[in-house]
Design brief:
A two-stranded antiparallel ribbon has the order 1-2. Helix 5 (126-136) runs antiparallel to helix 13 (329-348), helix 10 (224-256) runs antiparallel to helix 11 (264-290) and helix 13 crosses helix 14. Helices cover 70% and strands 1% of the residues. It is built from 15 helices and 2 strands. It has helices at 8-14, 29-60, 67-90, 105-118, 126-136, 153-159, 177-183, 186-198, 212-221, 224-256, 264-290, 302-327, 329-348, 350-394, 399-409; strands spanning 15-17, 25-27. The longest helix has 45 residues, at 350-394. The protein is mainly alpha-helical.
């Protein structure tokens, strides 16, 4: 028969009092070893749980610090306010471009973030956006009428008539021609003919009767060629006056009901300068009709005509653009809205968005790293807890029963 001596060594090998469960003990040498292993596993599990608690504090914060999630929430809130401030700068003149996002800071910020990444429109100057918005977001649009064109071709053609610079003089092989040429007074003689003829052959100055030779010489001097050129000068004067009156009338009609796309002040100034030059040229032609032997210069109105035609052309280009806008108002509106958002995220939020994006990436990276470590340490703690439960099942102890009862109650 084996003799068992219950001395102190036997007690230490086979009996173990539970520090956690008062009045509970294990019996047997294997039970004591299992209890020690449970204690070691528990210490390891507690260590991992402390690490998890520290990381959660770093992640979620406490009363004194906001934690990384709090920092991220603060960053999102600050950028949201920055977006709303940017909207405030434009809501008076470009409000309709932000329709659908004007009543929620959160929605506005989400839209701004989307536009910052997805918007491919060009960055347009703000004054141009304002100008287009007045048209596109203004009252209902309708087609505009083009500014009537005005032709200056005939007027410029009259100015180039060579008769203006032609000396119109009489026949030079008659006996009075030498005297007229010497005195250079053919215009004076021509003017005096009307008085001579009205006075029935008597000189209007000396009142003496002239002979037939003088009368014949006078008639031959002012021959058919002279009369033809004189009539050409008179016709040119009439035509010039008529054409000038037509041009000024058409320009006046444009100014009476000016197009909204015409630079009216500049147009009026050019028209006034044109009228003054036309008046001077008409006076030169009147002088030429009275003194056909003299050479006169006419001031060309070509530059003024080109300037006026340019103003009309510019106005009609704008009319065409406006009418195209009316025709494609839907597309133009969408284009303008996209360009307004582009200006907001590129100009108003450019620096702020870059800083926000960098800090957010850093915080999200840190949060992801912390969450990964929490998961790793948590899994380590759970592994050890599971091992403890298996070891407890192998021991002669009331602990598994206590755990089962507590689990059931829970």
């Amino acid at each position: 028969i084996q003799a068992l001596v219950y001395n102190r060594d036997f007690v230490e090998r086979n009996f173990s009092r539970s520090a956690e469960l008062k009045g509970v003990f294990t019996l047997g040498e294997k039970q004591v070893n299992a209890q020690e292993e449970i204690r070691a596993k528990k210490e390891e599990a507690d260590g991992y749980k402390e690490k998890v608690a520290g990381l959660k504090k770093l992640l979620e914060g406490d009363g004194a610090t906001p934690g990384k999630r709090g920092d991220l929430a603060g960053l999102e809130s600050a950028f949201q306010e920055r977006c709303w401030e940017a909207y405030g700068k434009h809501k008076e003149r470009l409000s309709l471009a932000f329709e659908g996002f004007r009543n929620s800071k959160k929605d506005f910020k989400a839209k701004a973030l989307y536009e910052a990444e997805a918007n491919k429109s060009p960055t347009v100057p703000l004054d141009e956006l304002h100008k287009r918005a007045e048209t596109i977001f203004g009252k209902a649009l309708s087609d505009a009428q083009p500014v009537p064109s005005v032709s200056f071709a005939e007027l410029l053609g009259y100015e180039a008539d060579p008769i203006i610079k032609t000396r119109v003089i009489g026949k030079e092989d008659v006996n009075i021609a030498e005297m007229i040429k010497k005195l250079g007074n053919s215009d004076w003689v021509r003017e005096g003919r009307s008085y001579y003829e009205a006075n029935e052959g008597y000189c209007p100055f000396c009142q003496q009767k002239t002979d037939e030779a003088f009368e014949k010489s006078l008639s031959e001097y002012f021959n058919e060629s002279f009369e033809r050129d004189s009539k050409a000068i008179a016709a040119l004067l009439d035509n010039y006056k008529t054409e000038a009156a037509r041009v000024l009338q058409e320009l006046g009609q444009i100014l009476a009901a000016p197009s909204g796309f015409l630079d009216v002040e500049k147009f009026r100034s050019e028209r006034d300068l044109l009228e003054a030059k036309l008046r001077l040229n008409a006076q030169q032609l009147i002088k030429k009709s009275k003194e056909p032997s003299q050479i006169f210069e006419m001031e060309s109105v070509g530059n003024l005509a080109a300037a006026i035609e340019g103003l009309i052309s510019d106005a009609n280009k704008k009319v065409a653009e406006h009418n195209s806008l009316v025709k494609n108002i839907g597309k133009e509106k969408a284009k303008l809205i996209s360009e307004v958002w582009k200006h907001l995220v590129e100009v108003d939020l450019g620096a702020a968005y870059g800083e926000y994006k960098t800090k957010k990436a850093e915080l999200e990276g840190t949060i992801k790293s912390i969450e990964g470590r929490i998961e790793t340490f948590g899994q380590e703690a759970r592994t050890r807890d599971a091992a403890i439960r298996e070891l407890e099942k192998q021991t002669t102890s009331v602990k598994p029963t206590i755990d089962a009862i507590n689990a059931l109650l829970a």
